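Pipeline run #58 for the internal structure catalog. This entry was flagged by the ingest filter as a single-chain record with no existing model, so it goes straight to prediction. Upstream metadata was stripped on purpose; only the residue string is passed forward. Reviewer on rotation: M.T. Logging verbosity set to normal.
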Amino acid sequence: MSETTNIDIHEQCARVWRSLEETEKFIAEQKQGMAGDADFGRPLTHWQIGQIAAASVAATAAMIGGVAALAKLFLP
């Protein structure tokens, strides 16, 4: 394997890991926000439920993309 290919693989792996870390951070922030809303003892509005759903879809898509990138790197 040439050196440039090796660097490419390492760079791609680093990007995937950064993406996964950012996704985990985003999910933690969303959970913290949801917990903050629950602390006030009020029900969530339709707008907040929509935001949570959209954030969940985005986080899921990011996770799937990260796994697909890893699979593409390591599987033939």
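catalog note: The radius of gyration is 18 Å.
catalog note: The chain has a mean pLDDT of 80.
status: ready for reviewer M.T.
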